Every structure is written in C-alpha cells, then in structure tokens.
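#struct-help
A.M.: can someone run this one for me? Single chain, 184 residues.
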Amino acid sequence: MKERLVCCFAILCMVLSGCAGNQGEAQKTGPLEQEDARQEVQEGASAAPSQAEGPESSAEPDPTPEDDAFSGRWQAVESPQYYMDIARGDGDSYTLEIVWAGASQGDVIWQAVGSYDKTWGGVAYTGTKYEDVVKADGTIDRTPIPEREEVTGMVYLEDDGTLYWIDDFDHTGDDMSFEKGLPD
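D.P.: on it. Structure tokens below:
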C-alpha cells in the first residue's frame, strides 16, 4: 500500500508540473510527459538484464475490452451516492464518468479520458468537473465548475479487485473504495 501511495504522489507531482498553460496545451503535452516519465523509469531500471524484462512483459498480454478489469459500473462502498462508469476505447484509452448523485444542488459529475499506465498500474485521466442543475421547467443544465475545468487523477485496482480513486485537486476519492457490478 505504501508503494502505491508513493507512486500516486509521484503521479501527482508529474501532473501538477504539467498544469501550466491552457487546457488544450495540457492535453497535448500530458501523454508526452507520461511517456518521458516511463522512459526515465525504464532507463533507471536498465541495470537489470534485458532478458529478464522480456518474458515478464510478454507473460501479461494486454487485456481485450471483454476481459478488461477496469471497464464497467463501480459503486462506492462507503458512500453509495458515488459511482463511476468506465469504458475502454481504442488501445489503452478509457472514458470515465464519476457521479456524486444528489449533491446539494444537483449531481456533480467528473467526465474524463485517460489511458492505462503500466508503470503506475492504473488509468491516469484528465477531464472536467460539472454540476447538473435542475431548472424550474425540469430540464437539466450541465455546467462546468469554473475552478475545476481541468481535473486530473487516477483510478487503480488492488489485488483483491477493489478500485480506488485519486482525485488530485479536491481529494474527493480519499478513503473511498469501489466494487464492480453493483446495481445501477
């Protein structure tokens, strides 16, 4: 667990160092920064023989969308008003929608896209935080929360299949665990 916390802290540092500029620039440079970080980690690990690394990477084939461990509906165990839907896209890409149902004025939604990072063992994401406000006529108005127009974080799995959420800015996911496949 300590190792995951150290990894999460390192991700937070990398993400925060890349938050300068506008949102478009951050989205374009984010994956490059992650690739640079992966290269640095791989270069640092080059002291081990390359033959030992080869079989390890081939022993774990990339999951297909059908057997992907992240995809599906996840329900928070400690706070049932929170749930998330994760869908796998092309390659290692994912879309995430995290919902806090029944917040004070309406639902709060984090919509994000990310990719699986083998180094950190989770899906690192970037997105926007919204608030759904129910108007007098019954329609729902989804508006971005200005101070959180760009959110970042990660979801990762523990060995027991429990999903954890790291919300870099609000820390909403702190002390929350999610189980897969609970009712919608």
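A.M.: thanks! Helices lie at 2-17, 23-44, 50-59.
D.P.: also worth noting: The CA atoms of residues 6 and 46 lie 21 Å apart.
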